[in-house]
Design a protein that fits this description.
With about 80 residues, the chain is mainly alpha-helical. The chain is built from three helices and no strands. Helix 1 packs antiparallel against helix 2 and helix 1 crosses helix 3.
């Protein structure tokens, strides 16, 4: 799997998932509802993406997507 060839919307959703997760971890109690809802919606978009139904949608591709997305959150790309 070429790590740079995930569908743009899938990579954006996984990257947003990490950013939202980090936001949720830092949010004070009582103000987490919207971040939780966003995290659930992003989870649905990532897991239900049609890419996973293609031959390229392997377990290794899932790991690679997470690695690429996490790296994007750390570099600000």
């Amino acid at each position: 799997m070429d790590r740079d060839h995930f569908p743009k919307d899938l990579l954006e959703a996984q990257t947003a998932w990490y950013l939202t997760y980090d936001e949720l971890a830092l949010a004070p109690a009582g103000s987490r509802t919207s971040a939780r809802r966003r995290l659930l919606e992003l989870s649905r978009r990532v897991v239900g993406h049609p890419f996973w139904e293609t031959p390229a949608g392997t377990p290794a591709a899932r790991v690679a997507l997470k690695e690429v997305a996490r790296a994007r959150t750390q570099t600000g790309s």
